[in-house]
Structure formats: C-alpha cells, structure tokens
UniProtKB/TrEMBL annotation:
<dbReference type="GO" id="GO:0046556">
    <property type="term" value="F:alpha-L-arabinofuranosidase activity"/>
</dbReference>
<feature type="domain" description="Alpha-L-arabinofuranosidase B arabinose-binding">
    <location>
        <begin position="352"/>
        <end position="481"/>
    </location>
</feature>
<dbReference type="InterPro" id="IPR007934">
    <property type="entry name" value="AbfB_ABD"/>
</dbReference>
<dbReference type="InterPro" id="IPR050727">
    <property type="entry name" value="GH43_arabinanases"/>
</dbReference>
<feature type="signal peptide">
    <location>
        <begin position="1"/>
        <end position="32"/>
    </location>
</feature>
<protein>
    <submittedName>
        <fullName>Glycosyl hydrolase family 43</fullName>
    </submittedName>
</protein>
<dbReference type="InterPro" id="IPR036195">
    <property type="entry name" value="AbfB_ABD_sf"/>
</dbReference>
<dbReference type="GO" id="GO:0046373">
    <property type="term" value="P:L-arabinose metabolic process"/>
</dbReference>
<dbReference type="InterPro" id="IPR023296">
    <property type="entry name" value="Glyco_hydro_beta-prop_sf"/>
</dbReference>
<keyword id="KW-0378">Hydrolase</keyword>
<dbReference type="Pfam" id="PF05270">
    <property type="entry name" value="AbfB"/>
</dbReference>
<keyword id="KW-0732">Signal</keyword>
Length: 483
C-alpha cells in the first residue's frame, strides 16, 4: 500500500512538474514571440583606426538602414587585439538575455593577414546584456585553444538548439587536419557563454577548399522542406538544409546561376552571408558583402529556401552612411526597438565652437591637429557634437561630425582629434565641464575633467589646455557653441 501511494504521489509530482515546465516554456515563448516591429544590425566598417569595433544600424523594413549612435561605435573591445570583426548578436529563447560575439582581430594595428590567420587569436570577444542597451565589459572566450595548431578563430555565429536546450557557437579555425591546413568550421556548446564544451569539427569541405563564413537561419514552419538553412562562403555561396542544427545537412545548391560566387566561378565575388527573416511574412533576405568591389552589402530574397532558383535580386535598398561589413541582423520587438532607439537613435545637434576674441575663427581639426581658423573648408572639419562625457556623463565630450568616434582630447596639454580607444585615460583626457565663459558668462568655457585648474584655450591659434591667469587667457578660453 505504501509503495502504491508512493507511486501515486510520484506520478502526481511528475505531472505537476511537467505542467509547471509547460507553463514556464509557454511564458518564455510568449515573451520572445511578441510581434517584431524592426531590425537591428551589428557590424564593423573596415580596417580603419576605429572601423574594427562594434556598430549598430536600425531598419523598419529590413532594406533601408540608418546608422545609430550618430555613426560612432556602440561598443569597443579593450581586450585581446583591441579590435573586433564579424559580430553576431544572439537573443535567448525567453528574450531576457542577449549576447554579442565577434572575431578578436584588428588588422588596422599593422597585423598582416598571414599572421592573423596563422598566429592570431584563438579567442572570441563577448558582451552580454539584459536589455540591448546596457552591456557588460568585453571578455575573451578561448574557443579554439584546444584545437591542435589552431591559428585563429574567425567569423563566429551562435544559434539556440531546442533539441538540447543550449547554444551552438560555431566559427572558422585555420589548422592542419589529415595533412591539409585550411579553414574549417568548428563548434562548441554553451548555456551561458561562459562555460563551453570542447571544440568539435562541424564543416570540412573536400580537398583543399576552405570555409570561413557560414550562418544558419531557422524556418520554424519548415518552408522548403527543412527547419534550418545554412549559407556558406566556400568558393561558392552554398545553401544547405537540415532539420537539426548538428544533424546531417543536404546541399540545395549555390548562387552561381545568379552570377554570384565566393570566387570559384567569378562574377560578383562576395563573402559574409548574413540571413534576415522578414518580419511578419514567410520571406528571407540573404545579405552578401561585395568585398571584391568594395560596394558593401547587397540583399537577395527568397520565399522558399528549398531551392536556390527562388532567390531574387533587390534594387530598392540603402545601407546608411557607414560601410557595413560582415555582421548579424536581429529582429526587434516594439519594446526592444524602443530601448535601442531611445539609447542609440537620438541624434545630437551639430555645433561649431566660435572664438570669443577672434569671432571669425572656429575650432577645427586639420590632419588630426586642432586649432582655430577662419573660412574652414570643408566646414565639417569645424563641426562637432557635444555628447555626454566619456569619463562622466554629467560632463561633456566633443565628438567630430565627419569622424564619428573621434574626440578632442589633450595629450601633454596639446589637443588632437583621436579615435576613442576605450581606455580610462582617453576618457578622462576627452572629458570637460561646460561652464560659463571666463570672459563673458553668456559664452562658454570648457574646464578639464582630470586637470580642473586647466581650460581649453587657443594660443597662436593652436588649441591647448592651460591654467587661466590673465584677461587675455580668459578671452582665449571662451567660446560660443553655435549651430
């Protein structure tokens, strides 16, 4: 009798647990399944001083994009090589956590492609957020360190695998296997982007053919016959289908019939395939980076990924001002879109800083030096945005309009225009208190954040940071913030 009761109790408990689990899953899915109203693209821009950092762009229709954060980077890597490329953005199934992972690589530092591929970082850079606007500090995750002879870890992606309840993180590593050294795709699994399984081989093309860029998109209703589709740059842009993330994949075809390849058959040579499901309809865009011609991303679209014959070219699209290089696109709910646009979508006014005692002269940058000049050409060299201070949001920093992400900073009391490197020293050097003008209270002076007895002033038309002790110096340190 006791055993019967125990069995009955256990059965009831199991049923309750299953019901609880079902309810929790339903809640999670409901929160993550709110209608999507927009799109967020994470990307880098190229091999410039600040191009290998993380940028955001926004779109309402998935084809016409606007740069966020006034075109400046949103996140900076201060770890590893201090540069990132190929970012992927991931949402948890319950919609309460987000991650960005990216290649730890900065070609602009002088690293050669050979060194990067053969003696590069085996780590990825990762950020975490609960709301898409407040992000953790970057951290390195050494996903490829256990691969024998690994030379790098490039172009990471991640997808949630409902079959196992964790995430599959996959990327390309250059290593020797079976006597052939080339890039292959490897993967690890994780539940928290902190702890990972050992790396396993995922994709290995025949012979000497390497593969670097691959990305998976889910088709929840299995349009075309598969639940998942994979686009890979492996000489062609190859499309494959599968019903499980780590299961067997079927080759559907490639895009050579459209005059598009990854180099094997010429035509428009592209890389960095980037999937984007259109919100509210059964249609996908596959964005392709026209790196060979430098034209940036182009989209092709399909309503049935089960055949490459269904892809169509698109002419009505725009990508904003910044060049978009290999990244990832995530659909946004209305709540997510509101948070993202509230933080990064507010464009600050464009201002000029007019000299008090030389009113025909304005602060400008020239070859990244800073001075006051009359008749500035182009005028953008004298245009700035007054932003919350990099070191203290109650103070201000002065960001260039035509070099987004570059700020006025002092070095040895001289001023330069320099790209923000994420360091505390830079932030302090580029932060100022905006105070009533020292020569006229209706004008403005800028007091140094880290040298509070010093102010921005011009001397022989050059901008300097000096203590102010004379009436001439007070005039030199006074400016009008004009439009």
């Amino acid at each position: 009798m006791q055993r019967t009761l125990s069995r009955a109790g256990a059965t009831l408990l199991t049923a309750l647990l299953l019901l609880t689990a079902h309810v929790l899953v339903a809640v999670d899915r409901a929160s993550a399944a709110d209608p999507f109203t927009g799109y967020l693209m994470a990307h880098f821009t190229g091999e410039t001083a600040i191009g290998e950092q993380l940028y955001f762009a926004h779109s309402k229709d998935g084809l016409h994009w606007t740069d966020l954060n006034d075109g400046a980077p949103v996140l900076l890597s201060t770890v590893g090589t201090k540069g990132v490329r190929d970012p992927a953005i991931v949402r948890s199934p319950s919609g309460d956590r987000y991650w960005i992972i990216a290649t730890d690589l900065r070609i602009a530092s002088g690293t050669s492609w050979s060194d990067a591929a053969n003696r590069g970082s085996t780590s990825l850079v990762a950020w975490e957020s609960r709301d898409l606007v407040n992000w953790s500090a970057p951290r390195l995750i050494n996903v490829a360190g256990a691969i024998s002879g690994a030379g790098d870890a490039w172009a990471p992606e991640a997808i949630y695998d409902p079959a196992s309840g964790d995430y599959v993180v996959y990327w390309a590593t250059n290593a020797t296997l079976n006597g052939v050294k080339k890039h292959r795709i490897y993967y690890v699994r994780t539940r928290d982007f902190v702890s990972f399984t050992a790396p396993q081989l995922y994709i290995d093309r025949p012979g000497s053919q390497g593969i670097i860029d691959t990305q998976i998109v889910e088709s929840p209703t299995s349009v075309g016959g598969f639940r998942y589709y994979r686009a890979s740059a492996d000489g062609q842009i190859t499309i494959e289908g599968s019903n499980s993330v780590l299961g067997a994949w079927t080759r559907i075809g490639d895009l050579s019939h459209m005059g598009i390849s990854n180099g094997a058959t010429g035509g428009n040579v592209v890389e960095g395939p980037m999937w984007m499901p259109f919100n509210g309809r059964t249609e996908w865009a596959l964005w392709l980076d026209q790196f060979a011609t430098g034209r940036g991303y182009m989209p092709i679209t399909s309503t049935n990924l089960g055949s490459t014959a269904n892809f169509r070219t698109v002419s009505d699209y725009s990508l904003g001002t910044n060049r978009k290089r290999h990244g990832g696109i995530m659909s946004l709910t209305a709540a997510e879109e509101s948070r993202v646009l509230g933080k990064y979508g507010v464009s600050r006014p464009i201002n000029r800083l007019q000299s008090f005692n030389f009113p025909d002269r304005f602060v400008r940058h020239a070859n990244f030096d800073v001075r006051i000049d009359a008749g500035v050409t182009p005028v953008q060299d004298s245009q700035f945005r007054i932003t919350p201070g990099l070191a203290d949001a109650s103070a201000v920093s002065i960001q260039s309009v035509n070099y987004p992400g570059y700020y006025l900073r002092h070095i040895n009391y001289d001023f330069v225009l320099a790209p923000y490197d994420g360091s505390a020293q830079f932030a302090a050097d580029a932060t100022f208190r905006q105070v009533p003008g020292l020569a006229s209270s209706s004008w403005t002076s800028f007091q140094s954040y880290n040298h509070p007895d010093h102010y921005i002033r011009h001397y022989a038309y050059q901008l300097r940071l000096d203590p102010i002790t004379t009436s001439v110096a007070r005039s030199d340190a006074t400016f009008a913030v004009t439009s």
